[in-house]
Amino acid sequence: MHPHIAALYNSAQKPSRLIIGLMSGTSLDGLDVALCKVAGAGINTQIEVLNFTTVDYNNEYKSKIKQVFAKRECDLELVTLLHPWVGKLHGNMVNQCLHTWQVNPASIDVIASHGQTIYHCPQSQHNHKSFTNGTLQIGDSDQIAVTTGITTIGDFRQKHIAAGGEGAPLAVYGDYLFFANPNENRILLNMGGIANLTFLPKSGDANSVFSSDIGPGNTIMDAYVQQNFKGMHFDDGAKIAKAGKVNTALLNAMCSNTFFELALPKTTGPEVFNLAYLHAAQLQTNTQHLSHEDVMATLNMFSARVIANALNECAQSAKECVVYASGGGIHNPLLMAHLNALCPTIKAFKKTDDLGINPDAKEAVLFAILANECLAGEQQHLNNTAQGIAGVTMGKVSFAD
Ligand SMILES: Nc1ncnc2c1ncn2[C@@H]1O[C@H](COP(=O)(O)OP(=O)(O)OP(=O)(O)O)[C@@H](O)[C@H]1O
Ligand SMILES: CC(=O)N[C@H]1[C@@H]2OC[C@@H](O2)[C@@H](O)[C@@H]1O[C@H](C)C(=O)O
After folding, report:
1. Residues 6+ apart with CB under 8 A from 381
2. 218 C-alpha to center of ligand 1: Å?
3. Which residue has the least CA distance to atom 4 on ligand 2?
4. Which of 257, 262, 347, 381 could make an SS bond with 320 (beta carbons 3.0 to 4.6 A apart)?
5. What's residue 283's pLDDT?
6. Distances in Å between the alpha carbon of 364 and those of 22, 51, 78, 182, 290?
């Protein structure tokens, strides 16, 4: 047996494993790195987050990725070069974290790497009859494995697509295994660039569980701030939006898009929800001359309204749902206040730290859970193609040498 296979076999049989989960989202703010101690597998998974940090991306990373990010046309040579470059960078960031945390790389069983999404296009979006759903994450796992000396499991989304899914959201697998609870109907809400939710009925009925993207979380707000407020990446504390007034005509125009009419579950990305989307709605409503503050107030309410609509829809199918929120959007006080006001059907709004998981770390932890399933899972507990949940094991293995 190859020593790397023997090492994986050994890891899979240990009572607990050390797995580093890596997530680089659509906001391009940084690489989330979560060092997790994972015991068991399947519905017996137990997770302890031993260390977590976000390693901020510098302007070079942001500007290089933005040249290809969510663009239908871009420089193919640059994409080809970025794939190993991002992988190597992520590997170096992991090395830097391990050094800071004083953790021996040899003690880590595997790294779970999401990579950097550069394009996401479910069939409902691309409309080419001869193609299936598509998504592309760069940041080659071989580079991460070679740079860190740690076996790396990556590229999780392609199996989901191969099995008929849209490649996202994958949160449902980790959410179901780790957060489902027989005493409470739960909605796990993540508000990153794009907002998504997982519905977990207390019945535990795997056929009723589902996960879906909702629409924009922070992505259009971030893009608008970056375009109009030099040096700013996002509307910190919603200061800009709080100084403006919601424009109802613009808000209503933004809310009318075929994506919102599609049944759940569905996925989307900044390929749809971007500044061009805003500009089209402004042209349609003759609101091109609004102040930046009024535009931001409207964008904030737009995200809140579409998220609230999805939460209220879920809450109709199960009484007394409790929402557990995560992702950068929880730090936006105006967005949170709007959500509270727009969701009378929700019993309570909480954050995932009430369930023991730092809300900023949740997505990185999710990928650690997926890698743990790839390594030590026995069978998939979820398999419902109607809900976009394929009963497959995801992830590809890269060895260090
Ligand atoms: N203090 C704050 N005030 C307002 N907004 C904030 C604050 N902190 C973070 N955010 C928002 O959260 C975003 C980052 O969220 P997050 O890291 O969850 O995104 P992501 O992982 O890239 O997204 P996804 O994985 O969903 O694509 C920021 O770009 C910003 O819009
Ligand atoms: C293609 C892609 O990277 N999608 C992300 C993005 O960020 C949030 C939302 O859109 C979600 O669908 C997904 O990530 C999470 C981790 C998921 O798959 O559950």
Report:
1. 42, 43, 176, 177, 206
2. 6
3. 168
4. 347
5. 98
6. 5, 11, 27, 25, 38
Please list the residues that pair with 351 across neighbouring strands.
325
**Residues in the ligand 2 pocket, defined by CB under 6 Å:** 25-26, 117, 120, 135, 167-171, 192-194, 196, 213, 267, 269, 363, 366
The pTM score is 0.95
pLDDT digit string, tens, across residues 58-114: 999 999 999 999 999 999 999 999 999 999 999 999 999 999 999 999 999 999 999
Instruction: Take atom 11 of ligand 2 and give the residue whose Cα is closest.
Output: 169
- Sign for the pseudo-dihedral over CA of 62, 65, 67, 72: negative
- Give the residue whose CA is nearest to atom 13 of ligand 1: 328
What is the per-residue pLDDT for 317? 80
- Separation of 363 CA from ligand 2 center, angstroms? 9
Which residues, 6+ apart, have CB-to-CB distance to 58 below 8 Å?
none
Mutating to test ligand 1, I would choose from 61, 224, 332 the residue with most ligand atoms within 8 A of its C-beta, which is 332
Token pair of 301 as six digits? 């309410």
Cα separation, 50 vs 102, in Å, equals: 12
Task: Write down how long the chain is.
Answer: 401
Residue nearest (by alpha carbon) to ligand 2 atom 7 = 194
147 Cβ below 6 A of ligand 1: no
> Ligand 1 mean position to 331 CA, how many Å?
8
Strand pairing report for 134-138 and 321-326: unpaired
The token pair that represents 182 in the structure block: 């027989």
Ligand 1 atom closest to Cα of 221?
A: 31
Angle at 24 between CA 21 and CA 26, to 5 degrees: 145
* Residues 6 or more apart whose Cβ sits within 8 Å of residue 80: none
Q: How does the average pLDDT of the chain come out, rounded?
A: 95
Flag whether pLDDT at 379 surpasses 80: no
Q: Which ligand is nearest to the CA of 158?
A: 2
The pLDDT assigned to 381 comes to 72
